[in-house]
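Lecture 7 notes: from sequence to structure.

We start with a single chain of 240 residues. Read the sequence below before looking at the structure.
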Amino acid sequence: MQVTPYKDSDQQKKLQVEQMFDNIAPKYDFLNHFLSLGIDKLWRKKAIRILSTYKPADILDVATGTGDFAVAASKLKPRKITGFDISEQMLQVGRDKVKRLGLDQLIEFQKGDSEAMPFSNNSFDAITVAFGVRNFENLENGLKEFHRVLKDEGVAIILEFSKPRHFPMKQFYFFYFFRILPFIGKLVSKDGSAYSYLPESVMAFPDDQKFLSILNRVGFSRARQKRLTFGIATIYVAQK
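Now the structure, written as tokens:
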């Protein structure tokens, strides 16, 4: 059974995800950094450090949201970064952010469906995505699109939540994720469903070796992972 943000809605998942992120866009950055205690910034830095070894010129940041990963990637001084997302409200926050940072000539944003992207085959040297692939309605379709729009030898850097395996982090993580996080998220964002959906979607996501197998199945020839912070998150690196 597919996990969706709004249980009483009969809309398809991608439309619900769009609605959810439109709803929480004004508070998203604050909650993202507050609820992760700022660790999400360190995870992105580690992902960008891995990406730096590939020296990409053209980067596509999928599920870019408010553009945090795109901004982090700007330190690599690529030729161009395209931020792509289904939520117009999130993108608007991102546009304001990159303009404020003086990066609006480097980073551009475009709205669309990550499972049917409007880009030509072999368009990008690298794809980045942080905490986005678990929101795809059809995960394999989205990853096939990654493979299609990447140039030969191109790389996808995927940062996603995963599930800790060992005591006591496993027990603490589950308590925080299912008890504390939804309460604070609802209080601040006024959308209770969004921060209940987050842990539910993480639990449903095929992380670890299952995800590596899917990457191989859709055509990536080299896929590996690096688990972070006791397994709370994982960086997946997949090369075409």
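The helical segments are 13-35, 39-52, 68-73, 88-100, 139-149, 169-189, 192-204, 209-217. Keep this in mind for problem set 3.
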